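Field log, afternoon session.

UNIT: design team B
ACTIVITY: writing a sequence onto a fixed backbone
BACKBONE:
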C-alpha cells in the first residue's frame, strides 16, 4: 500500500459523502457536493502523477484506479440525471456510461487474450476526462432550475466529453480489432 493507492482509496471513500452532500436541501448542498467531487477528481490526477513520479505503480493501483474513476463519474451522472430530469443530460450520460462498460469488457477480453497492453490510455482519454470532470463540477455546483448559463455550459461540456468518449472508444476498438478477430477464430477445446 503506497501513497498513490491510498489516494485512490480516499477518492472512493469520498463518494458517500459526496452523495449525501448533493442530497441535502438548500443551495449550499450543490457547492459542497461540487467541492467534494472536485477533490475526488483532483486525487484522480494526483495519484497517477505520484505513481509515475515516485515510481510507485502497482498492479493493485492499475486495477483500482479505473474502478475509482468509473465510480465517481457514474455516481455523479446518476445523481445529475435523477435531479435534472432532462433528456439533454440523459443522452450524454448514457453514452459515457455505455462506453465505460464497453471498454471495461474490452480490457477484460484483451487480458484474456494476453494482449492487455494494446488498449492503453490514449491522449484523447486524458482530454476527455478533463472536459468530463469540468462539466460535472459545473453541473453539480449549479441548481438545475432555472436553466442558467452555467447549466447550459455544463451541458455543452458534457456533450463535448460524450463525443470525445465515442472517439476514444473507436480508437480503443481499432487498436484491439486484430486481437478481437484472432479471438473469434480460435476454438475452445
Amino acid at each position: 500500500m503506497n501513497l498513490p493507492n491510498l489516494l485512490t482509496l480516499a477518492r472512493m471513500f469520498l463518494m458517500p459523502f459526496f452523495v449525501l452532500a448533493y442530497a441535502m436541501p438548500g443551495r449550499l448542498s450543490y457547492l459542497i457536493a461540487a467541492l467534494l467531487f472536485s477533490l475526488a477528481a483532483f486525487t484522480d490526477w494526483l495519484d497517477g502523477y505520484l505513481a509515475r513520479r515516485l515510481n510507485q505503480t502497482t498492479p493493485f493501483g492499475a486495477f483500482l484506479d479505473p474502478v475509482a474513476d468509473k465510480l465517481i463519474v457514474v455516481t455523479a451522472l446518476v445523481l445529475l440525471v435523477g435531479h435534472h430530469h432532462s433528456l439533454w443530460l440523459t443522452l450524454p450520460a448514457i453514452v459515457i456510461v455505455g462506453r465505460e462498460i464497453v471498454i471495461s469488457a474490452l480490457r477484460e477480453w484483451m487480458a484474456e487474450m494476453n494482449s492487455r497492453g494494446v488498449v492503453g490510455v490514449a491522449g484523447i482519454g486524458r482530454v476527455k476526462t478533463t472536459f468530463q470532470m469540468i462539466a460535472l463540477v459545473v453541473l453539480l455546483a449549479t441548481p438545475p432550475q432555472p436553466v442558467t448559463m452555467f447549466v447550459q455550459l455544463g451541458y455543452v461540456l458534457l456533450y463535448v466529453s460524450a463525443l470525445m468518449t465515442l472517439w476514444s472508444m473507436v480508437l480503443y476498438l481499432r487498436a484491439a480489432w486484430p486481437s478481437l478477430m484472432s479471438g473469434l477464430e480460435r476454438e475452445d477445446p
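LOG NOTE: The chain has a mean pLDDT of 88.
NEXT ACTIVITY: expression trials, pending approval
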